[in-house]
Amino acid sequence: MAICYRIQKSKHNSGTLSGIGASITGGRWNPVGTPMVYTSTTVSLCVLEILVHTDKSLLPNFPPHSLIKLEIPDECIREFHPDELLPGWTSIPPTDVSRFFLMPYLTTNSSLAFKVPSAVNPYEYNILLNPEHPDIGKVIEYPPIAFKFDQRFM
């Protein structure tokens, strides 16, 4: 089983595996309208991924957040190494190069999860979950733990 983590606003704890937030806003690996659950292989990478997308002036008044630990069966994960990705996948802001890269896998439900390098730190990985995959029930979700961002980030 692969272990991964997600930090999210506590008010969304009942919908951790819904992918609704990413569907509304889109992300590096999904276009608007396509649900996706973004997780990281380490808690510290979760923090980095949130901080690079957050206006630092908002941090002192950040709403309560939670840390969620997830376990995914190894056989349900399709791993991509940097040399398998298209040039431009790290573009800031993200472009259609990465946004549509996983669509063939998502539309065919070929994999529940995708392990991809982080654009923030390509030596670590994010695991993206397809919440519409029939195997989503195989993901083990642990109870949320209150998470506070270190004041030194503020």
UniProtKB/TrEMBL annotation:
Residues annotated as domain RES: 16-143
InterPro entries, sorted: RES_dom
Domain of life, source organism: Bacteria
Pfam families registered for this protein in UniProt: RES (PF08808)
Name of this protein: RES domain-containing protein
Organism: Spirosoma fluviale
Source organism phylogeny: Bacteria, Pseudomonadati, Bacteroidota, Cytophagia, Cytophagales
